[in-house]
Amino acid sequence: MKRKVLITASLCTGLALVWVWLLPRQTAAEEKATYVGTETCMKCHAKMEKNWAMTVHRRTLFNTDPSKKGCEACHGPGSAHVENGGDPDKIVRLDKLSPSQSATVCLKCHSQEHVTLWRTSTHARAKLTCTNCHDTHGPDPATLTKDIANAKLQLDGLTRSIKETEMASGIAAPGSKEKTEANARSAELKVERDGLLKDLKGNETLFERTTEPYVCYNCHKTQKAQGNLPSHHPIREGKMLCSDCHNPHGGPAGMLREESVNETCFRCHAEKLGPFVFDHPPVTEDCTICHKPHGSVNNNLLAQPGAILCLRCHPGPHGKTSAGDRLNTTTGTFTLFAERYGQCISCHPQIHGSDTHHRFLN
Questions:
Q1: Could you tell me which residue, 184 or 341, shows the higher pLDDT?
Q2: Residue 151 burial class via C-beta count within 10 angstroms: exposed 0-12, middle 13-18, buried 19 and up
Q3: Residue 22 has pLDDT above 60, yes or no
Q4: Helix axis angle, 2-22 relative to 99-107, nearest 10°?
Q5: Quick one: which H or E segment has residue 353?
Q6: Cα torsion 83, 85, 87, 92: sign
Q7: Which of 165, 267, 287, 291 is least enclosed by beta carbons within 10 angstroms?
Q8: pLDDT by residue (tens digit) across 140-157?
Q9: Collapsed DSSP state (helix, strand, coil) of residue 103
């Protein structure tokens, strides 16, 4: 009994040490530091203030707990950093922490259900940190989308106004006051347009760095290439996101939203689920037996052209069959030519299963 107690105590001590090790290490000065408030931080980090104000992190300013408020929610108390002239070693810097320590900072506030599996996720095992995908100081995609849309509308208006001033200048008498004013106004509008174009280009570049699928494609080059094939899920058209199927913060194999490939597919393709009286085994086993989920050169995301795909499991020619099936009356079989170059679904349309015929004829 005594031995069991000692083992239990050792395990508890070990777990406690692991937890302490995962926390960001602080110097003695940092441990004694006090909170100075976001306003103090922005006196030196003014360039960061504009973008940070458009992030969801700005909401932390409403917290009453100083350890979860503003800049110091992530970077820790800043008095020692300020008193030492902005010494970077006197503040918590996420880029200097280990992946586990960095995640601990983020998970202090982000306890949503979809991030609880992060520690065991494929991304965590690959030593990625939250900041590899997220820009904590940059505006969120929704804000960027709205800004880009507004900028494009302003550009349309400026373009029309420039054309009107140029037309006014063209019909005005040479040397007249009207012509001078029209030229001056045109020049002002062009300066405003050029400035807006510069801002728009910057926003669009930032948008590609911070939104799906661009962030995912930084690492997943193969999936990016597959997404550009003729048959693909409508990700590049903006109708789907990678996160509709995958949870980047953790999950089963492939970091899927559901427990299996099929359950993930059936979220959108429920009509293929059944139940059917006569099931097609691949449908109940794994959709990827027949389909390539990220893109294919074949229709309907098929792994191979229709007939060739079927022949992997159903080698021809057809054997003798019951009366009523279409066959060669001389040989009693279907021809191999028809199987290889025809479309199996022309005769077997209910390929995912049927309630009326075991050969899925209808």
A1: 184
A2: middle
A3: no
A4: 90
A5: strand 353-354
A6: positive
A7: 267
A8: 777 777 778 788 889 999
A9: helix
d(CA 128, CA 75): 19
Task: Kindly report the average pLDDT of the chain as a whole number.
Answer: 82
The residue type found at 27 is T
Interatomic CA distance for residues 247 and 257, integer angstroms = 5
> Using one digit for the tens of pLDDT, what is the confidence trace for 193-237?
999 998 888 777 777 777 888 889 989 999 999 999 999 999 988
Residues 6+ apart with CB under 8 A from 211: 141, 144
> Which of 263, 269, 282, 305 shows the shortest CA–CA distance to 353?
282
Please compute the mean of the pLDDT values over residues 230-251 and round it to a whole number: 91
Return the number of other C-beta atoms located less than 10 Å from residue 198's C-beta.
Answer: 10
Q: Band of the pLDDT at 290, cuts 50, 70, 90?
A: very high
Q: Which amino acid is at 40?
A: T
Within 13 Å of residue 53, how many CA atoms lie on the same side as its CB? 8
Is 65 within 8 Å of 74 (Cβ atoms)? no
> What residue spans of the chain are helical by DSSP H?
2-22, 28-32, 38-44, 46-52, 72-75, 79-83, 99-107, 122-125, 141-171, 177-210, 214-217, 221-226, 261-266, 281-285, 306-311, 336-341
CA 204 to chain centre: 17
Q: Which residue has the tokens 């000692």?
A: 6
Question: In the prediction, which pLDDT does 48 show?
Answer: 85
Query: How much is the pLDDT for 317?
Result: 54
Hey, how many other C-beta atoms are within 10 angstroms of the C-beta on 72? Answer: 25
Cα separation, 210 vs 247, in Å, equals 17
Residue 310's CB: how many other CB atoms inside 10 A? 19
- Dihedral sign, Cα of residue 149, residue 152, residue 158, residue 164: negative
Return all residues near 122 (Cβ < 8 A) that are at least 6 apart: 250, 255
